[in-house]
Amino acid sequence: MKKRIFTGLVLVCLSILPTMAQWGRPVDYSAGPGLKDAYKNYFTIGVAVNKTNISDPAQTAIIKKQFNSVTAENAWKPGEIHPKEGVWNFGLADSIANFCRENGIKMRGHCLCWHSQFADWMFTDKKGKPVKKEVFYERLREHIHTVVNRYKDVVYAWDVVNEAMADDGRPFEFVDGKMVPASPYRQSRHFKLCGDEFIAKAFEFAREADPTGVLIYNDYSCVDNGKRERIYTMVKKMKDAGVPIDGIGMQGHYNIYFPEEEQLEKAINRFKEIVNIIHITELDLRTNTESGGQLRFSRGEAKPQAPYIGTLQEDQYARLFKVFRKHADVIKNVTFWNLSDKDSWLGVNNHPLPFDENFKAKRSLQIIRDFDAAADKRVPKEDFVPNPMNQPGQEYPQVNSEGFARFRVEAPDAKSVIVSLGLGGRGGTVLRKDKDGVWVGTTEGPMDPGFHYYHLTIDGGVFNDPGTHNYFGSCRWESGIEIPAPDQDFYAWRKDIPHGNIQQVNFWSESTGKMQTANVYLPPCYGKLVKGKNGKLEQTRYPVLYLQHGWGENETSWPVQGKAGIIMDNLIADGKIKPFIVVMAYGLTNDFKFGTIGKFTAEEFEKLLIDELIPVVEKQFLTKEGKWNRALAGLSMGGMETKLITLRRPEVFGYWGLLSGGQYAPDEIKDPKIVKYIFEGCGDKENPDGINKSVESLKAAGYNAEGLISEGTAHEFLTWRRCLYQMAQSLFK
Ligand code: G3I
C-alpha cells in the first residue's frame, strides 16, 4: 500500500515533469530519432569532427545517430595536410574519411584555399623568396587535385575558397598614406599576390579534379549588411565570368542574441538570386554577444550557465532552424561546428552546441528535432485584444481568438526579455526588441485554454509583467493571463444571478505555531432565514467541501485563478447543485522540496485541517457536521494530501476528490461503505489512461466513482475548474 501511494505521488510529480527537469532529474533529450532523420525531408545535418570524435565509441555513436554529413574540423586544411612541399600528412585526414566510408556518411571537404592554416610554403621558393603567382597557381593546383582525388569518393561538397572577403566595420583604409575606400577583399597573401583571380583559379582547379562535386564559397558573418553585399558581388562577378561556384557557405558562428530571423532571411534571399545551393557550414551559438569566425573571441568564464541563457540558446536554435526549413529549397546542409561544447573551438564556457561537455544532449537538441512543421506556416489571426486579467488601462498582454498570447515590455537597455509562457517544453517565449526599444513577441502557438501563471526574465532577473494583476503560484505572486476557452461560460461572472461571497478567515494554528488563513465561499442564500421542517424560521446549514490548492499556491489560488466562487454561483443558479460551503485553506505545501517526494506524508496539514481548521469552520459557519457532510478534494499536491489524509482518516470525510492528484485503488480503501463518492480527474495532456483505468476499477469494486478528462488541457487551472464543476454536481447527494 505505502509503495502504491508513493507510486501515485510520483505519477502526479511526473505530470509536472518540466519542473522536475529543473529540479535536477536528468532528462535524456537525445531519446527519439536522430536529427538526420527528423530533417530527412529538408536538408542533411552535419558535424565537424576531430580525432577523438571518430575514435571514442560514445562519440561515434552520437555521430552515426544524429548526422549524415561530416566535416574534418582541421585535418584537411592545407597547412595541416600539406605542411611542406612534397610533404603530406594524411594520417588523421584518412582516418576521418575512412570512418565516413565505413559508416556510409558523406563529407563536406573543408577547405582547399584559405588565408589561415594555409600551406604558406606555396608563396616562397626554397630560399624564402616570394614566388610568382603562376608558381603559386601550379602548387595550389597540385594541392587541390591531390586532396580532391584522394577524397572525392566520400565528399559531396567542397569549401573551395574560405573567407576571402573583408569584414564589416572598416569602410576605409590607408594605401600609400591616402584614405581610400577599403577593398572588399581580405588583404590576404593570396589576394596581395593574385588579386581576386586566385578565387577563380581555385574553383577551376577544383572543378577539374571533381567534375560533379558541389563547389562552395564559404565565409562567416554573411548576414552583416556590408559583408553580405561584398560576397554577393564577388560570387556574381565570378559566376558571370564562368567560374564554377555552385553555392555559398554561410558559416553561422552566431550567438544567442544574433542574428534575428529577418536579417538571416535577408542574406539567404540575397544569395538565392545568384546560387541555388546554400550550406550552413559551421553553426554554433555562443552565449555572449560576439559572432563570426575570427580567432579573437571571449572564452567565457568557468561558471554554471544561468537557466535563462539556456532558454535564449534553445529559442535562437529554434528560430534559426525554422528559417532553414523555410528555405530548404536552397539550404541543402546544416553543419554544427564541433560535436560538443568540450570540442568547441570557442571553448567549453561558451556552451555553443546542442551536446554539452559530457556529450549529453541539451534541450536545444530536442527543440531542434521535435519541430512542428505545421506550426512553421502558422500565422496568428490578428484579432488580439487586451487580456481580461490586465491591470486597468493596460493594453498588453493580449490574446487572440485562437489562443495566441502577445506580450509587450518596455526595457530599453535590456539584452533579453523572456516570458515564461510558451509552447510546451520550450522554456518560454523570447521577445525581440523593436525599433523603438520595446520588447514584443507572440507565443509560437496557441496556449492551452484557461488560466496561466507567468513571469518575465529580463537579463536573468525575474519580474512580473506590469500589465497584469498578480496571482500566487510557484511560491510567489506571478503574472497571469486568461486564454479563451470554448466552454468558458461555466466560470463567467453572470450579472443576472445571485452571488455568494468569499470570506477570509484567519485562525491560530497551534500545530504550526502561527496564524493560518482560509477563504470560505458562502452560497448566495447563506444565512437567510427559511421556514424549517418545524415551520420555524431558521438559518439553513450546509455541508462543506474542503478544496485544496497545489504546490507553490495558497488559499487565494482557488478563489481567484480557480474562480471557485463564480463556478459555485453558476451551478446553484442553474439548479445543478444544492448550495454548500467551500473552504479553501493554505495546505502547507510550499516548504516541500522536490526530490523528497518519498518522504511526503501531509501529516502537518492533516493536523491543521482536522484538529484546527474544521473546528473553526464548524464553529464559525452554519455547517452540517459529520463525515457525510464533509468532502475533501485537491489539485496536484493538494490531491496528494487528499489521498494521504482520506486513507489515514476515513472517518472525517465522506466525499473524496483528486484533481491531477493521483488515483485511488480499491485495495487501498478496502470497503466501499467508507466513502460515498470518489472523483478523479486530469487533463488529456496528463495521465488520462491512469484516471480511466482507476475509475473503472473502483466502479468494478463497488465504489461510486466518477472521472473527468479535461479536453485540450494539461496540469493547469482550466483542468481543475472543469473538475470542480463536474465533481460539485455529485457531492452531498
Ligand atoms: O596542429 C597544431 C598542433 O600541432 C599544436 O600542438 C597545437 C598547439 O597549439 O595547435 C594545433 O593547431 C591548432 C589547430 O586548430 C588544430 O587543432 C591551432 O593552434 C588552432 O588555432 C586551430 O584552430 C582552428 C581554427 O579554425 C584555426 O583558424 C579551430 O580548431 C577550428 O575550429 C577553426 O575553424 C574555423 C574554420 O576552419 C573556418 N571558419 C572559422 C572557424 C573558426 O575559426
Description:
Strand 5 (172-175) and strand 6 (178-181) form a beta hairpin. By secondary structure, the chain is an alpha/beta fold. The chain contains 20 helices and 33 strands. Strands 1-2-3-4-7-8-10-11 form an 8-stranded parallel barrel, surrounded by 5 helices. Strands 24-25-29-28-30-31-32-33 form an 8-stranded mixed β-sheet, with helices on both faces. The protein has a 5-stranded antiparallel β-sheet with strand order 12-13-14-18-17, with no helix packed on it. The structure holds ligand G3I. Ligand G3I binds next to loops.
**Heteromolecules bound:** ligand G3I
Total count of strands? 33
Mean pLDDT: 94
For the sheet with most strands, the description reads:
8 strands, parallel, barrel
Number of helices: 20
Distance between the termini: 30 Å
Shape designation: elongated
Strands of the biggest beta sheet: in what spatial order? Answer: 1-2-3-4-7-8-10-11
Q: Briefly note the structural class of the backbone.
A: alpha/beta
Given as residue ranges, the uncertain stretches (5+ residues, pLDDT < 50) are: 17-22
Q: What percent strand?
A: 15-25%
Give the proportion of residues in helices.
Answer: 25-40%
Taking all Cα atoms into account, the compactness measure Rg is 33 Å
Task: Furnish the topology, listing elements before pairings.
Blueprint: H1 2-15, H2 17-22, H3 35-38, E1 44-49, H4 57-66, E2 69-72, H5 78-81, H6 91-102, E3 106-114, H7 133-151, E4 155-162, E5 172-175, E6 178-181, H8 189-194, H9 197-209, E7 214-219, H10 225-240, E8 247-250, E9 253-255, H11 261-272, E10 278-286, H12 307-326, E11 331-336, H13 363-369, H14 373-377, E12 385-386, E13 398-399, E14 405-410, E15 417-419, E16 429-430, E17 432-433, E18 438-442, E19 450-454, E20 456-458, E21 461-463, E22 470-473, E23 476-483, E24 501-509, E25 514-522, E26 529-531, E27 537-539, E28 544-548, H15 564-573, E29 581-585, H16 603-620, E30 630-635, H17 637-648, E31 655-659, H18 666-669, E32 677-683, H19 688-700, E33 705-710, H20 717-728
Parallel strand pairs: 1-2, 1-11, 2-3, 3-4, 4-7, 7-8, 8-10, 9-10, 10-11, 28-29, 28-30, 30-31, 31-32, 32-33
Antiparallel strand pairs: 5-6, 12-13, 13-14, 14-18, 15-16, 15-20, 17-18, 19-23, 20-21, 22-23, 24-25, 25-29, 26-27
Helix pairs in contact: 1-17, 7-9, 12-13, 15-20
The chain binds ligand G3I.
